[in-house]
From TrEMBL:
Biological source species: Desulfofundulus australicus DSM 11792
Protein name: Acyl-coenzyme A thioesterase THEM4
Gene3D superfamilies: Hotdog Thioesterase (3.10.129.10)
Keywords, in A-Z order: Apoptosis, Cell membrane, Cell projection, Cytoplasm, Fatty acid metabolism, Hydrolase, Lipid metabolism, Membrane, Transit peptide
EC number: 3.1.2.2
Amino acid sequence: MFRRSDGMCFACSPRNPIGLHLEFSHEGDICRTTFTAGNEHQGWDGVLHGGLVTTLLDEAMAQWLWHRGVAAMTAEMLTRFSLPVPVGVPVTVEAWKEGCRGRLWELSARLILPGGKVAARATAKFLTVKENG
Ligand SMILES: CCCCCCCCCCCCCC(=O)SCCNC(=O)CCNC(=O)[C@H](O)C(C)(C)COP(=O)(O)OP(=O)(O)OC[C@H]1O[C@@H](n2cnc3c(N)ncnc32)[C@H](O)[C@@H]1OP(=O)(O)O
């Protein structure tokens, strides 16, 4: 059920023709990616669709776990959209761990605009479904 071997993740696979093709780096406790939205990612004119803002935040948190050998699914997520995210500008997404109890992981993430303002924040709970190693 949780097989990922076809490598077609909408957020991170380089092979998904309609995917976001995100690449992640890890520095200390932070998982980070950058993304520049195109016109095809809009909701309101010129503004990144909120569902895709949530996707960016969700994926960064999932990748924080994946990088540490944990295959976990998002069980709950709360997103605060503070500012519109314009298309055509590179934004940074960062995720980090808040805590862990057994299979339950709590993480946070934020999306940062050029110039440093935080446009969106999320907190989420993930449940380990299997080890990825
Ligand atoms: C190719 C290379 C790729 C690389 C990378 C990939 C990275 C990955 C990218 C992925 C993409 C990005 C990520 C995505 O988009 S993941 C996709 C979106 N998420 C889903 O589809 C998840 C759907 N849900 C489920 O499948 C199940 O509900 C899961 C698996 C989550 C749990 O079902 P399971 O049957 O396993 O567990 P359980 O229900 O017995 O619960 C167990 C315990 O946990 C407690 N509990 C449950 N929920 C919550 C909660 N919200 N807060 C607090 N507690 C909670 C629960 O009370 C119980 O506690 P207790 O009674 O034992 O005390």
